Design the sequence.
């Protein structure tokens, strides 16, 4: 079965500093990987995805993620964090046997302090 | 211009009651989903319909019954509500061949 792991429950950074949210995956075959963000009392919003091609994927709100096959990682990054980036971030992987099914990580709470 | 909408936004009810949550999407997608997010924010798929056909049915108590009257709507009916059903329920939609799922704002269910 495929799965993703987010090793950090919380990430705290100062505004203007780089932000990294970690995700590792376990998939038999080629992974389809996603990042979503959930702001307080809101639904999940799609940030970016990796399907194939360039290992560096650019997404919404200045976020990007790097797919690393050798390290089975898909870390989310932003060069300069904003206070408004404070939210809950989820990594997800698509099921290889069911195209419709996503398995989500446990989430990482990001707090950006002014 | 709400893409995926859910009603109600909040639902407070007593144990043993029956309640329904409604979801509508205006994105023209052919697939819809129900997810449950527990108190620890863990997110898990419950059901999915593609063109009104049930395609994902996870190990969910049979007190939960989804219904899809058409491609744009997916409702969730819950019988005999229990304390453990308290959670946030998210609806989502996608188009086959497009991997991205779009989520609604959630329905916060509290069972007393």
Sequence:
């Amino acid at each position: 079965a495929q799965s993703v792991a987010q090793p950090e429950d919380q990430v705290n950074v100062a505004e203007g500093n780089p932000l990294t949210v970690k995700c590792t995956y376990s998939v038999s075959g080629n992974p389809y990987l996603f990042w979503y963000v959930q702001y307080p009392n809101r639904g999940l919003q799609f940030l970016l995805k990796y399907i194939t091609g360039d290992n560096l994927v650019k997404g919404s709100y200045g976020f990007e993620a790097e797919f690393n096959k050798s390290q089975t990682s898909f870390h989310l990054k932003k060069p300069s964090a904003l206070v408004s980036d404070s939210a809950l971030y989820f990594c997800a992987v698509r099921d290889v046997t069911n195209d419709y099914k996503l398995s989500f990580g446990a989430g990482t709470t990001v707090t950006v302090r002014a | 211009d709400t893409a995926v909408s859910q009603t109600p936004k909040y639902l407070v009810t007593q144990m043993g009651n029956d309640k329904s949550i409604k979801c509508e999407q205006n994105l023209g997608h052919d697939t819809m989903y129900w997810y449950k997010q527990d108190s620890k924010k863990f997110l898990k798929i419950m059901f999915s319909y593609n063109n009104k056909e049930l395609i994902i049915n996870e190990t969910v108590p049979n007190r939960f019954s989804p219904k899809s009257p058409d491609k744009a709507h997916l409702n969730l009916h819950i019988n005999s509500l229990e304390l453990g059903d308290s959670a946030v329920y998210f609806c989502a939609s996608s188009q086959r061949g497009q991997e991205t799922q779009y989520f609604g704002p959630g329905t916060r269910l509290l069972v007393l």
Summary: Chain A touches chain B at residues 32, 34, 36, 38, 41-46, 49, 51, 88, 90, 94, 98-104, 106-107 (CB under 8 Å). Chain A is about 0% helix and 50% strand.
